[in-house]
Every structure is written in C-alpha cells, then in structure tokens.
Amino acid sequence: MSIATSKQRMSMSEVYPEAYRAVLGLEQVNRSGPLEPSLYELVKIRASQINGCAYCLNMHNRDARAAGESQQRLDVLRAWREVDGLYTDRERAALALTEAVTLISVDGVPDDVWTAVRESFDERETSALIVAIALLFAFARSREAKSA
C-alpha cells in the first residue's frame, strides 16, 4: 500500500540541489549525533503529526519500527501527555520541546518546557533536538510546495 499525496508543485532537490544536499548532510550528521535513534524518530513523528505530512509520517514510523520502537508507543504518540508510564521523562521533555518549537508562533518555548529539556538533556543533546525539529520543518515544508 502506498501513501497518496497531493501533486508536488516543485522539487527542491531538483531546483536547488546544492541547498538540498546541505540539508541532507546536516540530517546525516544529526542522525549520527548524541540522541538515541528511537527518541530521534519519536521527535520526527510528533513534528510530522503536527505538520500533517503523510509522507513524513510513513517514513518516520517505518524508521522508528526499524530502530526497535514498539507499535503501541507509535499508536498513542499523538496523545503522549495522557499516557502514564509509556514514555520516559526524557522522552516527554523532547516531545514537549518538539511541539513548542514546531508551533513556535503560538507560545514560543515556555519556561517549564525549557527547564524540563535542560534537566534531561545536556547542551549538545539539546542542540541536536532543535536541529532535528528544524530539519523536519524544512523537509515538510519542501514537500508542502504542492497543490492541494
């Protein structure tokens, strides 16, 4: 089964390949960085849920399962706040940051979210989280350059 998507209006990789390669390079560096693969994918999936990107959701769910993520945790990720004991404090902090950064124009990153992140992640890990979220935004927006 394939994921149906709207017709893409342009391909960033074709019209601006040097920038696209740079973004891909940053993704490769960040993916091999300080964050554990399952957490990295949870962050990508949550941002993709907010962005409404079916292509990204399909890809990152597949990658998360390959990284050992359980189907149960993937199934309820959208409601992670309501599920007790299924996500660690570290994961919850990363998911809260993902939501805040993805929806930055709503409330910015609230102090309590930032405090929870800094209690669970060192500066390098925090930087990797922010880069992961920003990259997802760039990839999702390049896919959104399509017709409705």
Brief characterization of the structure:
Helices cover about 70% and strands about 0% of the residues. It has about 150 residues and is mostly helical.
SSE topology sketch:
Layout: H1 12-15, H2 17-31, H3 37-51, H4 54-66, H5 71-75, H6 89-102, H7 104-107, H8 111-120, H9 123-143
Helix pairs in contact: 2-9, 3-4, 3-6, 3-9, 6-8, 6-9
Task: Provide structural commentary.
The longest helix has 21 residues, at 123-143. The protein is globular. The chain is mainly alpha-helical. Helix 3 (37-51) runs parallel beside helix 6 and helix 3 (37-51) packs across helix 9. 68% of the residues lie in helices and 0% in strands.
What portion of residues is helical?
A: 55-70%
- Net shape: globular
The end-to-end span amounts to 21 Å
Helix and strand pattern: HHHHHHHHH
In what range is the share of β-strand residues? under 5%
- Largest sheet report: none
- Estimated radius of gyration: 15 Å
> What structural category do the secondary elements indicate?
mainly alpha
Mean pLDDT rating? 88
Number of helices: 9
Low-pLDDT stretches are: 144-148
Strands, count: 0
Question: Any key phrases for this structure?
Answer:
about 150 residues, mainly alpha
